[in-house]
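Hey forum,

I'm writing up a methods section and want to include a predicted complex as supplementary material. The small molecule is adenosine-5'-triphosphate. I've pasted the protein sequence and the SMILES. Can someone with a working setup run it? I'll credit the forum in the acknowledgements.
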Amino acid sequence: MITLDHVHVRHKARSGGLFRRDSVHALTDASLEVRKGEIVGLVGESGCGKSTLARVLTGLQRPTEGSVRFRGRDLWDMPGAERRRDFGSSVGVVFQDPSTALNPRLTVRRILRDPLDVHGRGTGREREARVEELLDLVGLPDHTLGALPGGLSGGQRQRVAIARALALEPELIVADEPTSALDVSVRAQVLNLLVDLRERLGLGMVFISHDIQTVRHLADRLAVLYLGRVVEEGPADRVADSPRHPYTEALLSATPSLLHASERIVLHGPVPSATEPPAGCPFRTRCWKADDACGTAFPAATAGEEEHRWHCVHPQPVRRAAAGV
Ligand SMILES: Nc1ncnc2c1ncn2[C@@H]1O[C@H](COP(=O)(O)OP(=O)(O)OP(=O)(O)O)[C@@H](O)[C@H]1O
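Reply by user p_vandermeer:
Happy to help. Structure tokens for the complex are below, copy them as they are.
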């Protein structure tokens, strides 16, 4: 449904100084395919480019290089009005923090009606009916319609944000860390709601999180981002049961699962600056396997089974359980 082809996003650095023109490499050569009806889990530490990828996928960020194709057409070659109408109604977005994503001065009714009004969907009466239907879809009671976001709990606010994302009957929802700003007690409810909606409405979903253990159980496919690059991707079970990139292994080991109790891998230091990413493999400065071979070029993709791909010259060995031995 949406294909990113060799997408780069560079920003002008905020710390560039008067005579320096540094660039922040927020995304480098990222390729990703989101197919109809599937859940793609996008994982990586803070600063790896997850939100930038979400902005590219939702048409909020134009790539510096590379293309975004929507149902086979180049998104940024489409006339602006058509892009906003066709693409804007096909992709809904749910942000991390519903307190900042919802206008505090608008009632829930207005928040949900707004996209229907802007896109001229149906008659006034039909729009009202759709607003009530949306509220019902996300499990909120009728009296919520008159409330302002400030009068709702964090979980209720995120339900409103999800209802708004569904208003135009999109085919895809991009959810950028949709539970991380919520109270731990309601996170599972909001996650379950998203999974339930996906099944009931046949939606595709891109689910972004820094917690690979949460996402692996929701997603059909996983893509692991490190310093703006997709370093591993493939079927969620395959990637999580037998990761081949050491970075994926490190992310998984941060929250060990009962099935694959592996030794905890502690990565030292933060993700390096995206202004001057290390040459070669970007992970080599924190990788326990790195040697000279890692410093020459970004490793080409190695293809495994079922479209499992990784970019590493010293991949992790295949885990026996995952290989079915
Ligand atoms: N508008 C911008 N101007 C300059 N740099 C930016 C801008 N947006 C993002 N960046 C930088 O691009 C890199 C990727 O940022 P991004 O927000 O996409 O990462 P992330 O994985 O979503 O992180 P987080 O989980 O903290 O939101 C970071 O180094 C960030 O500082």
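Some notes you might quote in the supplement: The CA atoms of residues 86 and 260 lie 44 Å apart. The chain has a mean pLDDT of 91.
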